[in-house]
Design brief:
The chain is mostly beta strands. The protein has one domain. Strands 1, 3, 4, 6, 7, 9, 11, 13 and 15 form a nine-stranded parallel beta sheet that branches. The N terminus is likely disordered.
């Protein structure tokens, strides 16, 4: 559940439940799941393992930053995933998206620029020739 296969924090420590609306910034450590609404920035503690999960009914209007970000809801604002960004089928993101690695499922909608976070050399890839 919650993408444990790639999770580096191991647990979801906090839940913002469905029907909950927060006006203001949220700062967190570890794992956070949002089923409600946040009108403000949602930022993980830098240098700490973190995971943010947005369910399909979740909505954030503001900046979002975490090491591992799983989105199946709506984000309006800039997004940064320092390790992995998973965009599930009902994800809708409007704003600049910065990521180190990205996984996008069919049905996810992005409206904004994608930018890869540098720091690792990319492997040289060549297309296989079909004439051989």
């Amino acid at each position: 559940m919650f993408g444990r296969k790639k999770l580096n924090t191991g647990t979801i420590d906090c839940l913002i439940g469905a029907g909950t609306a927060i006006r203001g910034d949220v700062r967190f450590k570890g794992g956070l799941r949002i089923d409600g609404e946040v009108c403000g920035n949602v930022i993980a503690e830098e240098g700490e393992p973190s995971m943010l999960v947005l369910s399909e009914n979740a909505r954030i209007e503001g900046q979002v930053r975490a090491a591992h970000l799983v989105v199946n809801g709506t984000i309006v604002g800039p997004v940064q995933a320092d390790e992995l960004l998973e965009l599930q089928p009902k994800a809708q993101v409007s704003g600049e998206i910065r990521y180190r690695a990205i996984e996008m499922h069919h049905g996810a909608i992005l409206d904004g620029a994608l930018a890869h976070l540098g720091g690792q050399e990319r492997p040289h890839l060549e297309l296989a020739s079909s004439n051989e």
